[in-house]
Amino acid sequence: MIRKFPSSRFTSLLSAAKPLRSFACSSSPAREPPLCALFSEAKSSPTSNTLSITPKTPLFLRTPSHAAPLSEVWKWHDWAKDLASSVEHPSTDPDDSLDSAALLRELKWLIEDSIIDDHPVIHRRETPNEGEQSVKLRASLEELYDLWRQRIEKRRPFQYVVGCEHWRDLVLCVEEGVLIPRPETELIVDMVEELVTGDEWFKKGIWADLGTGSGAIAIGVAKVLASPGKVIATDLSPVAIAVAGNNVRRYGLEGMIEVREGSWFEPLKDVEGKLVGLVSNPPYIPSGDIEGLQAEVGRHEPKLALDGGIDGTDCLLHLCHGASRMLKRGGFFVFETNGDKQSKMMVDYMSNDLKDTFSDLKMISDFAGIHRFVTGFRL
C-alpha cells in the first residue's frame, strides 16, 4: 500500500519542449564504444567507509522475532493514541506544529509495519481471555514505546522512525543521513517518462542522477527506461551511497543502475559528453533559512542535502555548467528548485550567461502550481 493522499497528475509536462538533436542523431554508432562499455569504464571504487556502512533494516522488512501479550500491545496502543491526541495546542507557526489526525494516521502505519496481523489484534477486544494471546512483533514493545516518543517529543520524521518512505510505486529504505524523497519530486520521473515514451533515443542512452540520496529518482527513471537504458547515481555522502545501493538491489536493478560515490560530476569523468539525460534534486535552501525549517526537517534531515548556500543556488549553478559538458547534443535535463524565484533565475542565467548552450528552457509547476522545476535540452 502506498502511503499518500491522491494527487492529480499533470499531463503533457513537456508538450511544448522540442529537443534539438539532429546532429546527435547523425552520429555513426560504429564510432562510439558500446553503451555497456561506456557504463563500465573507470567505475568509482567505494571507499572503505562506504563498505563498512550497513543500511538499517526498516521495520516492515524485519523478522518478527519478538512477542508480547495482546493486553500489553493494547496498553501500548492506548498510550500512543493518548500521546498523539495530546499535541493539539495553539502554535504561532502552524507549519511547524504537530497535527493529531496526522499522527494517528502515522500510528496506524507504525502498527502495520511492526505488528503481525495488526488489524484484528489491535482493533478487536471482544473477550476477556483474548488479551492473553501472544502477538508477534517486528520490534520489541520497549522499542515501540521509544520510537513513538522520538516521533512526538523529538520530532523525528516518521519515515526515519519506520525506516522507509512510500514514493510513487516504491517503498524505499531511508534513515538519518539521507534526504526523505518528497511527493513533488515524483514529477521528475513523470517528465522523463513522457520524454522517453515519445523518443527511443532517450530510452537507450545513459542518464545520471546527481545527489541521489535514497536512490529514488534513479530507481524511478530506471523503471521507466527499462533495458537497455542505464542510470548512474552519484552522491557525496557514504550513508546515501549505502542506502541507495541497498534500494537498487531490493528492486533488482543492479544491471541498470550504478551507484558512484563522489561530488556531483567528479565520478562521471568517463561519460563526459555522453549523457542523454541529467536529473537532480540538489540542495537549494538558502543557508539563512535552514534554522527556520520545520523541526522534522531542520533538526533531523542532512544539512548536506538541504543547504544551497547564501541564496540557495550554489549547487544549481554548478549543475548548469556541468550539464553543458556532460550532455550530448540534444540531451535533456531537469533540476528541482526552491520555487518561482530560483526557477526564473536559472532560466535567465542559462539564457544569458550560458547563451547558445541550451534550448527550450522551461519552468515546470509542481502539484501546488509553484514553478518547481527547470528543464531544457543541450544544443
UniProtKB/TrEMBL annotation:
Q: Which InterPro entries match?
A: DNA_methylase_N6_adenine_CS, HemK-like, RF_glutamine_MTase_cyano, SAM-dependent_MTases_sf
Which SUPFAM superfamilies does this chain map to?
S-adenosyl-L-methionine-dependent methyltransferases (SSF53335)
Keywords, A to Z, come to: Methyltransferase, S-adenosyl-L-methionine, Transferase
Alphabetized Gene3D superfamilies for the sequence: Vaccinia Virus protein VP39
A Gene Ontology molecular function term for this protein is: protein methyltransferase activity
Pfam families in the cross-refs: PrmA (PF06325)
GO process terms (BP): methylation
Keyword Transferase in record: yes
Q: State whether keyword Transferase applies.
A: yes
Record-linked PANTHER family: PTHR47441, RELEASE FACTOR GLUTAMINE METHYLTRANSFERASE
- Protein name per its UniProtKB record: Methyltransferase small domain-containing protein
Native organism is Thlaspi arvense (Field penny-cress)
